[in-house]
Amino acid sequence: MPDLLRKPFGTHGKVHDITPANAGWRYVGFALHRLRAGESVTEATGDREVILVMVEGKAHLRAAGQDWGELGERMSVFEKTAPHCLYVPNGQHWAAEATTDCTIAICSAPGMGGHEARRIGPEGITLTQRGKGPNTRWINNIAMENEDFCDSLLVTEVFTPAGHWSSYPSHRHDEDDFPRITYLEETYYHRLNPAEGWGIQRVYTDDGALDETMAVRDGEVVLVPRGHHPCGAPHGFEMYYLNVMAGPLRKWRFVAAPEVEWIFERDA
User: Which CATH homologous superfamily contains domain 9-267?
Assistant: First the structure.
């Protein structure tokens, strides 16, 4: 069985460290630090660009030779306010010192030195509705293709109400055939409210060669190397996830699963 569900190492420090090498793919990396007030972390970007997302809490950030001050505002992702983020290109260092207990996500992909370090949000990030009925969810786009300050990364947050579906109708982006479809690897960092809750995510291909359905819990990460990847939040459990995507072309084009093509046509 593919190792698509990654549980955190613990509750403190670096609790996720997903790399192309341990994921078995080429582009996407995802790490997560949970720091207590006063603790710090420093890392080099190497040959990768990164977006630091202040998931929760506040930290003082330095990167690429600049002091970016204190970033962060929301103390819970379920406040649904826009995140404070920082883009750091390849070949640089970054450092964070927690000013409150905080959770920092490190989203990474190959960097080509094409952009300067910069703050992202909260200005310019607007919570936007997608879908309708029990397929309604809310999106905070951090770095999608209409923003041109990244070489490879595509990053977004999604809030799925209890009892709703998300990343649905089912779709895939696993072929390099632009403009019909693009190849993008993807990670889902899940949070549940209340934290004792759970959600469902299925990752499957049309031919059934890959077909895994996972119960995801608060703080877990799902890898999507290929195939369709819908998820659902049961009644009583609100779902958040942070998506990281990257591939050879920084475009998001997908193809619907055959069984749901009629839903796309009806809801277009």
Answer: Jelly Rolls (2.60.120.10)
